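Data follows
____________
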Amino acid sequence: MTGRILELADVRVFLCAADGPIMASDRDAADVIGELYGTDVGLIAIPLDRLTPDFLKLRSRLAGEILQKFVTYRFRVALLGDIAAAVEVSDALRDFVRESNRGETVWFVRDLAALEQKLKHVRQPLPSGRSSAPDGG
């Protein structure tokens, strides 16, 4: 496994290793999902170091492709790291981060401590009954 499972605020979280392979496509996201088959993990925490620099360039569409793969398979995602410089130069990214952080599925947080605080205030339970296919089959 290219990471470890931990519990934060009573939620099973898969923390991707910061020094693991770079995620540059939805296929890379599928590889992580495959590693988690049968683990009862509800959230995947991905350090920004694991993502290609183009991830934060929304016009590349990588953020949408990668995040959609995780969401399709009913995982919540937290992106860990400082994105202040990227947000400062991109209104679109700033808006995307703000809207994501208002939701329940994708969050941008500075570190695990911030993620734990966010999890303590989640209104809805984490997805359950996940199967190997997004349609439950």
User: Anything to note?
Assistant: The two ends are 25 Å apart (CA to CA). The chain has five helices and five strands. The beta strands are 3-8, 11-16, 43-47, 76-80, 106-109. Residues 91-102 form the longest helix (12 residues).
